[in-house]
């Protein structure tokens, strides 16, 4: 894939859940493709806010990785809890 020559100081992130969008974003210069697995406590923390609440899964991580194998993935997991080690092992 060819990418634009963007300044090295700028980091672009994009939450993605679509293979074609992930490829397009990467080819357009997005530095990190972001998959958001966090859901614990999100409703309380964002209560009353007009925010997008992700329900992405490990299958989404795999799909985006396969769509853009050379891309840099950023995967957010849940806050520390009793199954954090298992979550990290999956990612």
Automatic annotation (TrEMBL):
Q: Which InterPro entries match?
A: Pyrv_kinase-like_dom_sf
The protein's name = HpcH/HpaI aldolase/citrate lyase domain-containing protein
